[in-house]
Automatic annotation (TrEMBL):
InterPro entries: Kinase-like_dom_sf, Plant_MAPKKK, Prot_kinase_dom, Protein_kinase_ATP_BS, Ser/Thr_kinase_AS. SMART domains: S_TKc (SM00220). This is Protein kinase domain-containing protein. The keyword Acyltransferase does not apply. It comes from Cannabis sativa. Keywords: ATP-binding, Kinase, Nucleotide-binding, Serine/threonine-protein kinase, Transferase. Residues 268-288 are annotated as: Disordered. One of its GO terms (molecular function) is protein serine/threonine kinase activity. Residues 3-260 form the Protein kinase domain. Residues 275-286 have a biased composition (Low complexity). ATP binds at K32. Belongs to the protein kinase superfamily. GO terms for biological process: signal transduction. Pfam families: Pkinase.
């Protein structure tokens, strides 16, 4: 199926995000585009989303394509379009921070998504407020799986040759031992929850030298838990921000914590849809190769395109 590229709506480290729409339909898309530099990350994201399947708290991928425009060979990932922007954007709309009822709801959604990703044997490796999208109904979904990795067999820690993720959200074991396993996502979740409440990064000095930041994360210092949070909120963060990853609570354990119990959000379907329909790209067209959650024909279509492309 062919699609029409609209205006750019975001810029990341290796990709630009465009608003787009299907040529022969009313499904609005967010298309993440990169040249050769970011191709591997986009391919990795496509692979991970295809493998884990569908979950209400994980961004939906409709497929990928390769385009050739102005002698430029680009890779494109076709994703759900989030009308509310990122969680970071939502925080800015509310003066930089959120009220606790909203924090609880978003935390439950993110936690559901993390639990689902972990249950499929993957680690996100870059949970942060910029990588959570907000939709028209207020639901939050985890996005940006470019750094995600498959966990080692039998739960062994998988190591990477270089730091993987955003420094402000890195777990101590990643800084000290270059270790990446499920607990790193829980530490990052704790950082994001605190940031939702205070409007500031949990280490409270984003301008400091990166090496000084890494020394703080890898040292004995613990990040400060906002004292204005409810007792349940403070206790929740204390379970996320444990230096020893073996003692840090898991996503499954945290889902039973009083801070998020009783919050109604979507539930993930553990049955992965790995059906694919292979297609061939035309050099002159933007053409979808189905994948990442099944065929485009099974997608839920919006009633009308919101805004003009």
């Amino acid at each position: 199926m062919k699609w029409i590229r609209g205006k750019a709506i975001g810029q990341g480290g290796f990709a630009t995000v465009y608003r787009a729409v299907l040529k022969d339909g009313d499904l609005e898309l967010a298309v993440k585009t990169s040249g050769a530099y970011g191709a591997e990350a986009l391919k990795n994201e496509s692979y991970v989303l295809d493998k884990i399947g569908t979950c209400p708290e994980v961004i939906r991928c409709y497929g990928y394509s390769e385009t050739f425009e102005k002698e430029q060979h680009d890779y494109n990932l076709l994703l759900e379009f989030a009308t509310g922007g990122s969680l970071s954007d939502e925080m800015k709309k509310h003066g930089g921070r959120l009220l606790e009822p909203y924090i609880r709801r978003h935390t439950k959604s993110i936690l559901n998504g993390i639990y689902f990703v972990h249950s499929k044997g993957f680690i996100h490796c870059d949970i942060k407020v910029d990588n959570v999208l907000i939709f028209q109904n207020g639901n939050a979904k985890i996005c940006d799986f470019g750094l995600a990795m498959e966990a080692s067999e039998k739960g062994k820690v998988e190591s990477s040759r270089e730091l993987r993720g955003t420094p402000m959200y890195l777990a101590p074991e990643s800084v000290n031992e270059n270790e990446y396993d499920y607990p790193v996502d829980i530490w990052a979740l704790g950082c994001a929850v605190a940031e939702m409440y205070t409007g500031k990064p949990i280490w409270n000095d984003p301008q400091q030298n990166q090496w000084a930041l890494l020394l703080r994360i890898g040292g004995e210092e613990l990040p400060e838990i906002p004292q204005e949070l409810s007792e349940e909120g403070k206790d929740f963060l204390s379970k996320c921000l444990i230096k020893d990853p073996k003692k840090r609570w898991t996503a499954e354990m945290l889902l039973d914590h009083p801070f998020v119990t009783g919050i109604e959000v979507g539930e993930c379907d553990n049955e992965s849809d790995n059906n694919k329909t292979s297609s061939t790209s035309s050099p002159s067209d933007s053409y979808v190769k189905d994948g990442c959650k099944g065929e485009l024909g099974t997608a839920v279509r919006v009633k009308a395109v919101m805004g003009r492309i």
